Amino acid sequence: MGVVKSAIGDMLMTFSWVVLSATFGLQTTEIVTAAGVQGIAWAPLAITTFLIFVYVSIFTVIFGTASFNPTGNAAFYAAGVPGDTLFTLAIRLPAQAAGAAGGALAIMEFIPEKYKHMISGPSLQVDVHTGAVAETILSFGITFAALLIIIRGPRRLLAKTFLLALATICFVVAGSKYTGPAMNPAIAFGWAYMDSSHNTWDHFYVYWISSFVGALSAALVFRTIFPPPLPQKKKQKKA
């Protein structure tokens, strides 16, 4: 039952994250306007970073160890972090994809018509091979940063969450002119499902293969630099 509970938690968390993250641009615009800081160039990025920090903090309390990124789960497994097995990863991934598709459908169904033009997910802005390279590099970067922050970073949870939010916004901005970016196959799948491009080669190549290659490469590099502790052998009692 443990793996089923994890899969359900992942699905609910991914659903919620897709709904909320799709409105980050809208929320940022509204806050910038309300605060009267339209002339400050860095204000939108600072506000979006703060929104990510707040929502991730809330999600951590509500969903606990649930996850909305299958490449993150796979990377932590490859880095030697205890928790998942290949079996649990195989169960959690489709649950995350289903949650993402449900979230994308829900937000587009219920968001007022006047805001729909502000709601979108990752989309390929360049040719497919350039996009694949970009998504690989971005996934490597965000995954290595996440491993470094969570495993070797500060002890305080809020500090970890803030650094994760900062790293996320940096890589999102860096990849915005290439792939959206996604750095998360499940969320990319959810939005691709909206326009029936989820079963195309380009989508699979850029947002699945490239993301997993980047994330697993980051995990292997991290494991090489910071090898997991060897299991201690139990001392046998002398007769």
Walk me through the structure.
The protein has helices spanning about 1-20, 25-35, 45-65, 70-80, 85-110, 130-150, 155-175, 185-195, 200-225. The chain is an all-alpha fold and about 240 residues long. The protein starts with a helix and ends in a 14-residue tail after the last helix. The chain is about 70% helix and about 0% strand. The protein has nine helices and no strands. The mean pLDDT is about 90. Helix 6 packs antiparallel against helix 7 (about 155-175).
Summarize the topology:
Layout: H1 2-21, H2 24-35, H3 43-63, H4 70-78, H5 86-110, H6 128-152, H7 157-175, H8 185-194, H9 201-225
Tell me, what's the shape? Answer: globular
Q: What proportion strand?
A: under 5%
Alpha-carbon distance between the termini?
41 Å
Compute the number of helices. Answer: 9
Attribute tags:
239 residues, mainly alpha, 9 helices, 69% helix, 0% strand
Concise overview:
The protein is an all-alpha fold and 239 residues long. The protein has helices at residues 2-21, 24-35, 43-63, 70-78, 86-110, 128-152, 157-175, 185-194, 201-225. The model has no long low-confidence stretch (mean pLDDT 92).
